[in-house]
UniProtKB/TrEMBL annotation:
It is found in: Cell inner membrane. InterPro entries: YciB. The keyword Ion transport does not apply. PANTHER family: INNER MEMBRANE-SPANNING PROTEIN YCIB (PTHR36917:SF1), INTRACELLULAR SEPTATION PROTEIN A-RELATED (PTHR36917). Keywords: Cell inner membrane, Cell membrane, Membrane, Transmembrane, Transmembrane helix. The keyword Transmembrane applies. Plays a role in cell envelope biogenesis, maintenance of cell envelope integrity and membrane homeostasis. Coiled coil: none annotated. It comes from Brevundimonas intermedia. It comes from the Bacteria. One of its GO terms (cellular component) is plasma membrane. This is Inner membrane-spanning protein YciB.
Length: 206
């Protein structure tokens, strides 16, 4: 990974994390300061999410001069489901977005393994350079991660309160960061010579 790519990745992750923090802060203000119920607070906070998602995509393009596939995919989902949430005034659309997004990624990644193709390599772009065996292992790991997030999110949003779901969404970003760091050890075993690994979070923060 070049120094330029590393800096661009760090900037993008910082912006993505900032977008999630802004969303959670907006929810807290509307829920506890303004006294709105959970669903109304989520709808109001979604305005911030939509704006932050657009800013994240713009910054990502500015620092890399392109729209990286994974941030574009997840950012696009955030914009689409965010707008739908606002238009239909239904926060469940925002909650289910996490399930659809991660479920789709899980199906694509895990479904590609029997065919010997690794779309995760395309999704990450130039973030890392590893052997085909490494890509296979990484595709399996991230595919299982996305499947787990999809299942857990379905359980949480359907059985728990809005406050709990928002807290879960914040905790999920931390879990994804830890997961990304954990994968560095696997990546190092399959790294192409002269490359330096960096953690790749499976959560864009949106």
């Amino acid at each position: 990974m070049t120094e330029t790519t590393r800096k661009a990745s760090s900037i993008r992750q910082a912006v993505d994390f900032g977008a999630l923090v802004a969303f959670m802060a907006a929810y807290a203000v509307n829920r506890f300061a303004r006294g709105l119920d959970g669903q109304e607070a989520l709808v109001q906070a979604t305005w911030v999410l939509v704006g932050a998602s657009a800013i994240a995509l713009i910054v990502g393009y500015a620092v890399e001069r392109r729209l990286a596939p994974l941030p574009l995919l997840t950012g696009g989902f955030a914009l689409i489901f965010g707008v739908l949430t606002i238009v239909f005034h239904d926060p469940n659309l925002l909650k289910i977005k996490l399930s659809i997004q991660n479920g789709l990624l899980a199906v694509v990644l895990l479904g590609s393994l029997p065919m010997g193709r690794y779309p995760f390599k395309y999704l990450l772009g130039d973030a890392i350079k590893i052997t085909d065996l490494g890509w296979r292992g990484l595709t399996l790991r991230y595919g299982l991660y996305f499947a787990a997030v999809c299942i857990v999110n379905e359980i949480v949003w359907r059985t728990q309160s809005d406050d709990t779901w928002v807290a879960f969404r914040g905790g999920l970003w931390i879990a994804s960061a830890v997961f990304g760091v954990w994968q560095v050890f696997f990546i190092m075993k399959h790294m192409i010579k002269d490359e330096e690994p960096a953690p790749v979070s499976p959560d864009t923060g949106l």
